[in-house]
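Narrative summary of target 7.
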Amino acid sequence: MKKLTIFVTAALLSMSFNSMAFTLAGTPLVLDQDAFRYCAGAKNINVCMERYLLIHKSDKK
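Modeled conformation, tokenized:
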């Protein structure tokens, strides 16, 4: 039962990251799973996400 609770909590948390990412201007920001994998161990997630977007800006076009 404890494992099921942990799994459900982790699933809900991961869904909330995708739906609640906003920029400072209040506009929604959609980030792919690769960005989260890239920044998984980062100390500052915001700086890492900005860096990821700068590095992979040409890949998205």
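The first helix runs from residue 2 to 19.
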